[in-house]
Amino acid sequence: MVRKVKPLVVPSPTDLPLRRDLAGGELENMKTHLDVLLLALETLTGAGSEAMLNAAQDLGLMGVISDRVALWRLRQANPQRKSSGGRKKLDIEEARSLVLIICHLAKTHNSRIRRGVTLLEQMAAQDKDPTRAALLGDYVDQFTNTFQERMDTEATPTAEQLMQLAFKLLIDLMFYSATNGHRRLWLALFDQAQS
User: Which of 7, 45, 130, 170 is a good FRET partner for 124, with 20 to 30 A between their CA atoms?
Assistant: First the structure.
């Protein structure tokens, strides 16, 4: 019996409709959240700008994110970033593109993300410090250092707050690596934009 293979479905920005118009502060929150998710992926998997550009090419998004400079400018749109210039307003098409890239990379690195979440659950069940597991400890250290290096926040988060943020993002990335992860992230952005 010949098994039919389902064709690979590449998500499209049109899969991510606007639920409502966004106010300026809400768009700022979206920019920040997308950049911090990319930071979590980067520090957990080592997926840097080259991997992000490859994902843009795989998804047919080179018209929106064409090169390293365009990607850098989009990431600099995060109002919490330390920046000496190059800040750009993020538009909805660029936000959609970043959502698709994040979910594509999360799918690509699904096994590492799942391993991290499994370790987190195991350490919690044993009432142990999760950073004692090498994968989680390295991830939290890298995330904390990179966050402090790149972000310019009014209130400096404590090491405990950054660890909790890193773990929350790790769990979120597991959900965003699912088949409809891009829709889930898009809806979450709207919910978070209001907070």
Answer: 45
